[in-house]
Batch of 3 targets.
Target 1
Amino acid sequence: MGAKEKELSHFNQEGRARMVDVGEKGDTRRVAIAQGEVVMQAETLRLIREGKVAKGDVLAVAQVAGIMAAKQTGQLIPMCHNLMLTSVDLHFEVEEEPPKIVIRSEVKTTGKTGVEMEALTAVAVAGLTIYDMCKAVDRGITINNICLLEKAGGKSGHYQRLV
């Protein structure tokens, strides 16, 4: 079934928003991996690498912010369920050309619904945190290409983004 043929599940019979009932679904192991990038000036990247940003250790703070964000996704995105996450991890890869930090999150749970939104939220908030901590020296920072790379578990099975 193509994307246009699938029904959107977050609408009731009257066309109003609803939270999907997952009560009858079985618990399965769920994993999602998301990625995004924060592009900046070379000097900004140098300051981050050398630990010279006035607000502190940028990647350490972004790590904690991303984890906290994943745990709060159900409070931020209206139709998301509150989930008991079993693992949240973020990794940062510094690239020189163009100067950027690639953020990758991996979120896991065992439950009735997936953790794609939690993984995406972790990346987005980690990126926003990098921006916040560095905006005094580089207001031109951009947060780009946030996407789901992979998900596993549940009825829809395995998905892997084609690069």
Target 2
Amino acid sequence: MSLFGAISISASGMDAQRIRAELVTENLANADTTRTPQGGPYKRKDAVFGASPVQGSFADTLSELAAGPGVGVTVSRITIDQSDPERRYLPGHPDADPQGYVAFPRINPAEEMVDLMSASRGYQANVAAISSVKDMIARSIDLFR
């Protein structure tokens, strides 16, 4: 794999972690949303990562076919939590059922923050990998001078 292929793989990882972080922040923002346009409380979303071939130039593709294709990261699907909502007794709430219970999303803020930190660290790791490849390219150019 070429150095530019390594950059493409890290860039795909950065994009996947960005999507994951967006979903986590959406979950945190809607932790108390009891009514959505679809009806009922907000449902937690999570990203499922998968492998995808990295797109590059024709020369990169030709050399990778000889050595094996570079594989990047993609969000293969977004899952929606199908568990029953958390029910809290709040009889004065506008969304309360006849018994006085309100359905809230089953979102744990501490778990979401851990997921957000994990996405941030994954993003940082890909940035560090790109920075290392950039340094290798710069040193290679210096050797040819």
Target 3
Amino acid sequence: MDNYFYEVLPQDKAKIVEKLQQQGKSVCFIGDGVNDVVAMKKANVSISIRGETSIATDLAQVVFMDDNLSHLCQLFDIANGLDSQLRKSLVISLTPLPINLIGILFLDVDLVPIIVVNQISFSTGIGKKIEHDN
């Protein structure tokens, strides 16, 4: 977390979110009421807390069920780990593609081994993700 804002007037909340996004930043907005709705919709991620207004909890992508923000750091750690693992899985799944294309186009490799290699790499990429979740 690079920065945070608090005690902001309702009309300025969405403007701050837009300004930060224009600077290329991802914005997480934590809201609890009707005055937060526009900013929550504009944010990359919106969070609310159980027991707040129904519109805030309905709009939020994440709702903390224990009535406080104590798990906020854990949420960011989970998100960063997931992002890292998804990137690794994508690389594992797509790496054989150019190699296979070269094999088909220039080395006269049969199509069956190419399909097998693609399926193995795809399964390995998926397997990495499943392994990480458990």
